[in-house]
Amino acid sequence: MCREFVHTETRGFETLHGGGKVTGKLYGGCIESIYDAFTGATYEDEPAVCERYGIFPTMDEWGEKILFLETSESKTAPDAFEKMLYELKRRGILGAVKGVIAGKPTDETYYEEYKDVYKKVFYDIDTPVLYNVNFGHALPRCVLPYDAETTVDYDEKRIVITSRVLF
User: Fold this and answer.
1) What is the full per-residue pLDDT of the chain (167 aa) written as tens digits?
2) Which option is the CATH number for 14-161: 3.40.50.300, 3.50.30.60, 3.40.50.2300, 3.40.50.620?
């Protein structure tokens, strides 16, 4: 059975904080999963497992990354989303990375509220944030390749993946 899928974008990428152009290696994913892995919110032993196997970059390695974050289809409430971002900020990650690519919210639920949260959390750090990028759970979606060398132009609202990592 063939199904037709039509999706029309109503909004483009938005630079919420900062500007300029950065180049680094992509790293990130679903913020709910990342938060859980750091805090043990879902599985108590998850932080210990992540630490034991070196799942997350070291602070020096974070400094070479462009962090991509998106929310899941569960449509996390803005106050919980804010708590998750503040956890990454508290750990020094948001200030260490070269830039952030923020995913489009699923069904654009909490679109403006998430924007406000990003602006609030990043107000006192220099890390640029590009918002409403189509990857992860939202439609239309694409996949961002981990560790690929990427350039993000926050002024032109453009992302260029310049190299792939082959395993």
Assistant:
1) 444 444 566 788 999 999 999 999 999 999 999 999 999 998 999 999 999 999 999 999 999 999 999 999 999 999 999 999 999 999 999 999 999 999 999 989 999 999 999 999 999 999 999 999 998 888 777 888 889 999 999 999 999 998 866 55
2) 3.50.30.60
- Angstrom CA distances, 10 to 28, 29, 51, 67, stand at 25, 24, 41, 25
